[in-house]
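Dear Dr. H.,

I hope your travels went smoothly. While you were away I took the liberty of generating a structure for the chain from your last submission, since the lab meeting agenda had it listed for discussion. I wanted you to have the full record in hand beforehand rather than looking at slides cold. The sequence, exactly as received, is reproduced here:
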Amino acid sequence: MRNFLFADDESAMNRALEIAQRGIGFVEPNPAVGAVVVSAESRWIAEGFHSEFGGPHAEVVALQEAGEQARGATIYVTLEPCSHHGKTPPCADALITAGISRAVVATQDPANHVAGRGIARLRAAGIQVDIGTCRQQAEELISPFHKLFTQGLPYVHAKWAMTLDGNIASRTGSSKWISNKTSRNVVHKLRGRMDAILTGIGTVNADDPMLTARPPGPRVPTRVILDSQARLRLDSKLVKSVDQAPVLVFTSDADKQRCDALRSQGVEVVSIQRDEQTGMMNPLNILTELGGRQMTNVLIESGGQVLGSFFDSGQIDEIHCFIAPKLIGGDNAVSPIGGVGLESMEQALLLEHHDVENLDGDLYIHGCVKTT
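The corresponding predicted structure, in token form, is as follows:
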């Protein structure tokens, strides 16, 4: 990037957004943030991103690289600089000390302990602050952080693989393999940046999955099993691999002896109440428990019943759908989302900012669920 000239504010902010993504999976529950320092002549000087939880923030990394060249320069940052002492000193103070003359901020920090205070501190020090360049992309980048810090709930990713005629399993339950190896590799990368992978006991008993990222990613996700009666087998791959990744079982009316047997093998068991209307464990109660543990991203890999309960509760934030060019037919084949569902097409949820990729013949559709 040395000697590179940026055409405008948007091009510089796009670079900050690009490098910010390198921190995804490493910084949670913090947000991914990128920063770029640019001279008065629009020339690239330095850049940085938040690379690990507890480590220096993006602005500090960029300022350290810029050195004295930061004086009188402009910094482009994807999220409002912090103004409080946490694991690191306030970034707003660092910008002031470095002599930055202008700060272009994509979006304000939604966390209550910042929420405009960093911007106010910069302006009070005489620094010009412009807000809103690439705001949409920046807010999308920090969506998981936003949900956790404003609602106390993790951001929920729903993943499934289905045939071209919309089935995740045949009428006999056969489902291996719908998607191809390239698609499965993408799923493993997705798993590797999650705090938890959630599924139901029906899927576990049918497939005996590991639910781990192979090869490992930046995070080791907790395997979360919805198992009202603690039916998880002690000889399952999940239990046998508990030393590799934690297993958390949610129950509602399980026998104490079964729960104790799981605990003796290192499995954590948590009891929650069933929903009176559906008879199932309430997704909101499950997510509240996970959010209380500072889990930021949760991936649902389950059958239609579990996924349908989260859909009906309005708790799916992002979709990862893999469509294979295969047909299996059958009135009794299994669809990806069960539950009550919506009454009319007018109520259908839409994906926004979605992408479609060709993965060696499979189609990978992923995007955020539109909320308004």
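Two observations you may find useful: The longest helix spans residues 9-20. The longest strand covers residues 155-163.

With kind regards,
E. W.
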